[in-house]
Amino acid sequence: AVRLRVREALGARQPVDEVKVQGWVRSVRSQKEVLFLHINDGSSLESLQVVADPSLENRDLTFGSAVEVQGKLVKSPHKKQNMELQAETIRVVGPCDTWSFPLKVKERHPLEYVRQFPHLRCRNNTLASLLRIRSEATAAIHSFFQVNGYVHIHTPIITSNDCEGAGELFHIETSNEAKESAEKTHFFNVPAFLTVSGQLHLEVMAGAFTRVFTFGPTFRAENSQSRRHLAEFYMVEAELSFTESLQDVMQVMEDLFKTATSTVLSKCPHDVELFHKYVAPAQKTQHLRLFFFFPSCRISYSEAVEILKQASQTFTFKPEWGCDLQTEHEKYLVKHCGDRPVFVINYPYDLKPFYMRDNEDGPQHTVAAVDLLVPGIGELCGGSLREERLPFLESRLQRLGLADAYQWYLDLRRFGSVPHGGFGMGFERYLQYILGVDNIKDVIPFPRFSHSCLL
């Protein structure tokens, strides 16, 4: 027998005499003359209908049980499905106790409910759709960069660098180190942390390969249980050498978003529709259409602050020049610009990390930085031109007391330095935006510390 995935069986154009399909039972309906099953193996949102003789039914053939069905794949007489499987044998590989199984047949469980069962929630339609979308989006992002000549770099997860300078780092020590005195010797001879960004490592590689990217886990020890923050998340980061324009960086951000989203919408239309129909009906695709068909709004940080100061809305955090934009500010700016994506450029010099390029402007001293703000989320991408001029970078690192620690970074400017820039995009925030999910914890495979078996 030819082994087929459910997706392959549903998409078959011609009948097949001998096939084998394996999966989990989504429904069982026994009638006097016929037994109907629907089975799914995770390859498709839609399940495959199995038609069998009632004699093949047994007590273990229940919702949630794992089965192997052999028979003939034939054209279905029903308009809503292309093919169905006429079973000759049904073998229950793994029974399922439906009474104690937390997921119930034909019941649409809210995301808050299935979050309680991180080890089982992938069998829920919504989370299964999310994980297929996540898989396709990952492949689309890699494809975008490879097609455009970028080299993929695996940047370190354990590092001594604090790229963001925010101090929200997970410190790594061995179990023996934790028991020893404060005068202990570090495993790596220096304090080590889980990475918050691969950017500085990418800058090293951009000095040899021109265009590079990384896509991997990053960690922030931000003590927040909000719907917007994760301790562990995935970050897409890219660096481009020989670019002197912030517009070039913004264009790559926009092209990446459009290409990846087009791929997801074309390859997972039913999965995306499930979210827009049941999880976020207000989202639909209106925000995505605005991104595709209307030019993005571009404003400076100074213009953004003036817009916020003149707003009739009362903010929790008062907008002032020199202060970081809060989520409430970002969402207001998006609405002010017609509920479409907004690029905010040229942030205050003292607000941003040392590696961002000095605009040498005054009296409001700024750097060539950019944030991409999107409806419902706020900041999606952040980037900048990097400071490639040795005297400027050396002076700033000395003022910050970081010159000794970053001698290697200064070497990049001593030996063949070129104008360059880059950006990072939070992958989970991207998924939140295109699907309209309110809680970021619902776009990750496993919610952290929600069940003892996954601690």
From TrEMBL:
Organism for this UniProt entry: Jacana jacana (Wattled jacana)
Q: Which CDD domains match?
A: AsxRS_core, EcAsnRS_like_N
- Family indicated by similarity: Belongs to the class-II aminoacyl-tRNA synthetase family.
* Annotated gene: Nars2
Catalytic activity, as annotated: tRNA(Asn) + L-asparagine + ATP = L-asparaginyl-tRNA(Asn) + AMP + diphosphate + H(+)
Name of the protein in question: asparagine--tRNA ligase
Could you tell me which SUPFAM superfamilies the record lists for this protein? Class II aaRS and biotin synthetases (SSF55681), Nucleic acid-binding proteins (SSF50249)
What keywords appear on the UniProt entry? Aminoacyl-tRNA synthetase, ATP-binding, Ligase, Mitochondrion, Nucleotide-binding, Protein biosynthesis, Transit peptide
A single GO BP annotation from the record? Answer: asparaginyl-tRNA aminoacylation
On the tree of life, the source organism's domain of life is: Eukaryota
Q: Which InterPro entries does the entry mention?
A: Aa-tRNA-synt_II, aa-tRNA-synth_II, aa-tRNA-synth_II/BPL/LPL, Asn-tRNA-ligase, Asp/Asn-tRNA-synth_IIb, NA-bd_OB-fold, NA-bd_OB_tRNA
User: Where is it found, in Gene Ontology cellular component terms?
Assistant: mitochondrion
Q: Can you name one GO molecular function term for this protein?
A: asparagine-tRNA ligase activity
> What subcellular locations does the record give?
Mitochondrion
Kindly indicate whether the keyword Aminoacyl-tRNA synthetase belongs to this entry.
Answer: yes
Query: Could you tell me which residue ranges the Aminoacyl-transfer RNA synthetases class-II family profile domain spans?
Result: 131-445
**EC number(s) reported in the record:** 6.1.1.22
The record's PANTHER family line, in alphabetical order, gives: ASPARAGINE--TRNA LIGASE, MITOCHONDRIAL-RELATED, ASPARTYL/LYSYL-TRNA SYNTHETASE
